Amino acid sequence: MHSSLLVDYYELSMIEVYLRKGFHGPASFEFFVRSLPDNRNFLLAAGLEQVLDYVTGLCFSDEDLEYLKGLGFSPVLLDFLNDFMFSGDIWALPEGTIFFANEPILRVEAPLPQAQLLETRLINILHLQTLIASKAVRVKLSARGRSLVDFGFRRSHETDAGLLAARACYVAGFDATATVEAGRAFGVPVTGTMAHSYVLSHESEEQAFRNFVDVHGDKSILLIDSFDTIKGARLAARLYQEYKRRGVRFRGVRIDSGDLLVFSRRVKNIFERSGCPELAIFVSGGLDEFEIDRLLRHGAPIDGFGIGTIVDTSADAPYLDCAYKMVEYSGRGLMKFSIGKATLPFRKQVFRSLGKDGGFEGDILCTADENRGARRPLLEKVVESGRILKRPRLEDIRTRVARGIGKMPEEFLDIHNKADYEPIISERLRRCLPEEPG
Q: Residue 61: enclosing H or E segment and its boundaries?
């Protein structure tokens, strides 16, 4: 999963040429997203922590080098990899920062062979978490403050994807995950309920519920739709009153199937008539921001949502059109003119303008050495000469997301409409753009 050979073959082929032909000059590469998916008004930068770990820990074992030797690579490349230690600088948007198309969220400044080597894995890391966090924050917006738990590991795209998706969801504002390793690895709160198999393993639903509450007490959430959701709700209400008299107040129930709007209303009515309106109603099953928004707009009395497959795979927009491109080499600005894939030259900085009320007014994309007065530069130096200067803290990232969302105009937060917005390109960069074909 974490092999140094998680790299495209052509990276090594190019580096071998650089080394043998003397291309050792300073290069600058930038990671950016060319365009936003249809259902995204902005994206959230995520994955920087894993990038820092990768870059500063990258090394090649004897076994790695022996394999590459067998592929025919020369001693020049093998010696370079054997001694590899990243010595460059990295600039990045702090994790959780809102950004837009063509804005660099990370820049690598290093000798060309070093900067080139990072391309494959760096894109891989940043793409996944940025993709999932940008989907999850839409769910956070639609939930209107209700509890959100990540349920998606089991249908994510294998181990690392599921684990990092749990982190990305928490960054975006989810409250917890069902993935236990995400708690140990990242400090994400871990929680869970029960499965239908648990209920079916008992002789009766009541026995299943009693055994669970006997063991887990106040934190229990009972899955009530294995047989008949309404009967399950009535049983849960009766048991709640019984256990409350013993000093145990379990948390609530989960509904995982059927018409969640209808069932949540009927279950809430049962709880109110049974004298336990405080019992929480938690729902799951194929949910995304649009379904959550529909349920809450129609007054569904739901307290929390379990979110899985659709978010952890970003099903409506399963990839970002992202790239890691060289923008400077030995002081020269570089750009591609390819149709549909043109790039802007020079090392760049993004400046954000906020109004007097602190609200977002717009971004301007400039060369790194331009001065934009009172506007705030977004990219910060996070690695200098191969040494990490600052490492993101998960709770700080969540706070940054919440603050950023609070500054955005309503049209950017509307999950149903596309905001008509593009960052301004500075005059210096604009002069570098190719003329439109006439």
A: none
- Tell me which H or E stretch contains 314: none
- Asked if residue 280 and residue 148 are part of one domain, the reply reads yes
Number of helices (H), then strands (E), in the chain: 17, 19
Structure-token pair, residue 432 = 């570098």
DSSP letter at 257?
S
Domain containing residue 365: 9-132+317-430
Q: Which amino acid is at 152?
A: G
- H/E element, 231: helix 229-245
Instruction: Give the largest Cα separation in the chain, rounded.
Output: 81
Domain count, the chain: 2
Q: Is residue 157 situated within a structural domain?
A: yes
- Rounded CA-CA distance 307/231 in Å is 25
On whether both 239 and 94 belong to a single domain, the answer is: no
The per-residue pLDDT for 336 is 77
Q: How far lies 328's CA from each of 109, 234, 272, 325, in Å?
A: 9, 68, 66, 9
Distance CA 165, CA 171 (A): 10
Tokens at residue 160, please?
Answer: 């690392």
Q: Could you read off the pLDDT of 219-248 as tens digits, one per residue? A: 999 999 999 999 999 999 999 999 999 999
The whole-model pTM stands at 0.95
Q: What is the identity of the amino acid at 380?
A: E
Cβ atoms of 92 and 105 closer than 8 Å: yes
pLDDT above 60 (res 438): no
The secondary structure of residue 357, as a DSSP letter, is T
Asked if residue 154 and residue 63 are part of one domain, the reply reads no
In this structure, are residues 29 and 107 in contact, taking their beta carbons and an 8 Å threshold? Answer: yes
User: What is the per-residue pLDDT across 333-381, written as a single tens digit (0 to 9) for each?
Assistant: 888 777 767 788 899 999 999 999 999 999 999 999 888 776 889 999 9
The first and second tokens of residue 155, run together, are 């249908």
